[in-house]
Amino acid sequence: MLGWLYCSLERWSRSDSSRLDNRFEFIPRWYIRRLSRAKLVRTLRYVYRNSPFQRSIWRKAGLGLCDLRSPEVLQRIPFTTSDSLAESPQSYCCVPEDQLIHIVSSSGTKNRRKKIYLTADDFDHQTRMIGTNLRRFPGVSCVAAMFLVHDPTWSNGAVVRHAIAQAGMLGFLSGEHLSASQQIDLIKCYGINCIVSTPSYISRLTVEARQDLRSLGIRYIQLGGQSWSETLRTRLQQAWGAKLIDTYGCAEAIFGMASECVCQDGLHLAESDFWIEIIDPATGKVLPDGQEGELVFTTLSRRGMPLVRYRTGDLSHLIRPVSRCPCGLPVRKMARVRGRIDDVLIIGAGCNLYPDEIDNALLSISGLTDYQLTLERDGFRDVLHLSVESDSPPDDLRTVLSNALLSVPSIGVSHDVTRVLTFGRLESVPLGSLSAGRPKTVRIIDRRVS
Ligand SMILES: [Zn+2]
Questions:
Q1: What DSSP designation does 43 have?
Q2: pLDDT grade for 176, boundaries at 50, 70 and 90
Q3: CA dihedral 335, 338, 342, 345 (to 10 degrees)
Q4: Element housing 313 (H / E)
Q5: Hey, which residues does 370 pair with through a beta bridge?
Q6: Residue 2 has what pLDDT?
Q7: In 3-state terms, what secondary structure has residue 276?
Q8: Which residues line ion ligand 1, judged by CB < 5 Å?
Q9: Which of 133, 163, 168, 169 is nearest to 147 (CA)?
Q10: Average pLDDT, the chain
Q11: Residue 30: which residues within 8 A CB-CB, separation 6 or more?
Q12: Rounded to whole angstroms, how far apart are CA atoms 74 and 72?
């Protein structure tokens, strides 16, 4: 019976995902779990059979095909790291080269860009599932994707543009190169009522537009690619009169891994397409629900280049399931990502400084759209430099920024109590200059060890 249900749901979602839109409420939670478990085992056996590179690694770990019979074996399988993926992406491919006709690259914010190869079916399935999620937002009919379009290897915009088409909606890839007035004209001209973009670009657009944005009729703004604060959510929702929706998904996952619903209370996981684990980044041990750690995923629907236990480097936790979300989706939720593990800084006298603490402190300052924080060493002290994008920096910018920084407990203690941290340059730079020519800003730079 389960096999029949599994096949029918797969066939259903592939033939016309719009049929799924109003059926989620009727899918029991246990079925999603059974479906994910079956797809995980199928993926592991598929990878073992078709990727000689991964098979040899798994064999060294003492695993044979006969061991790959249940999801519990996953914890014995070695992780896939970003370095390994960047080094040799073709080693992870499971089909002949001529079937891989799409490529999606990571932004390469901190290290080398990773290339993900996809078959036509992979690309179609992933964009269809992102499109299905888009249709769950009532009233959305016309969408603008505002992502960098000048870079031929950064494909976020192209994926979203295809997903909009898969959702059966009118869509535009308007990029980030248009002026604010051109973007506003586009919204007015075509009745765009949903925007998909990055938080730093929407913040900049909000500042540069210099007009009443509430009258434009934007209902939802979906943000991804960077972490952002609840303060920014409040500020942008007031400015646009729209709901801000957080989404999560790195390029290695082709972006559509999790999304908030209209309830804005945790991100629903695409459980039938990704198996999610939260691990202790130091030991690799799987952590229980509710405990924060590194997010690791295994793709469940990809045939060209499936990834098994891929370490994202992002910090989050799985939310303990209590009851079904009021939106009706039967899938689990994860918490909003707190930032990247390699962006967690140890400052001053051994205090942890988390990226979301800096977001909360700085992105709540009116007119400030993005920032770049750099740490250097001067003798026994850490020196913190900060550049912010702001359209009209106040005369007392240094005071405003230092007060914001001191509101973060670890910075306050290190600066005022133990006095092992000092402030260096606190400066304002033109809007858009920090990310110029890049998909997104490198917000944290630690030069103390180089
Ligand atoms: Zn929900």
A1: H
A2: confident
A3: -140
A4: strand 310-316
A5: 389
A6: 45
A7: strand
A8: 261, 263, 325, 327, 329
A9: 163
A10: 89
A11: none
A12: 5
Domain range summary for the chain, segments of one domain joined by +? 344-446
What is the rounded CA–CA span in Å between residue 215 and residue 439? 29
Position 312 pLDDT exceeds 90: yes
Residue pair 361/408 in contact by the 8 Å Cβ criterion: yes
**pLDDT reported for residue 11:** 57
Residue that has been written with the tokens 């066939």 in this structure: 11
Give residue-wise pLDDT tens across range 230-252. 888 999 999 999 999 999 988 89
**Alpha carbon of 270 to ligand 1 centroid (Å):** 12
Widest CA span in the chain: 70
Distance 118 CA to ligand 1 centre (A): 29
How far is the centre of ligand 1, averaged over its atoms, from the C-alpha of 25 (Å)?
A: 11
| Domain 344-446, second-level architecture | 2-Layer Sandwich (3.30)
Residue 262 CA to ligand 1 center (angstroms) comes to 7
For β-strands 421-429 and 444-446, DSSP reports them as: unpaired
What distance in angstroms lies between residue 380's CA and the mean position of ligand 1's atoms? 49
Do 43 and 298 touch, CB atoms closer than 8 A?
yes
Q: What contacts 87, CB < 8 A, 6 or more positions away?
A: none
Rounded distance between C-alpha atoms, residue 95 and residue 145, angstroms: 31
401 conformational bin, left if phi > 0, alpha if psi -120 to 50, beta if neither? alpha
In DSSP terms, which residues pair with 387 in a beta bridge? 372, 427
Tokens in use for 32? 């999603």
DSSP H or E stretch at residue 216 = none
Return the minimum-mean-pLDDT range out of 18-27, 80-89, 175-184, 299-308.
18-27
Q: What angle do CA 322, 328, 332 make, to 5 degrees?
A: 45
Q: At what angle do helices 230-240 and 199-209 cross, to 10 degrees?
A: 40
Question: What pairs with residue 416 in β-bridges?
Answer: none
Q: Tally DSSP H helices, then E strands, for the chain.
A: 13, 20
Provide the whole-model pTM: 0.88
Distance from the first to the final alpha carbon of the chain: 59
Å from CA of 353 to ligand 1 middle: 31
pLDDT tens profile 154-165? 677 888 899 999
- Comparing CA positions, the residue from 414, 294, 442 lying closest to residue 352 is 414
Q: Residue 419 above 60 pLDDT?
A: yes
Ligand 1 midpoint to CA 401 (Å): 36
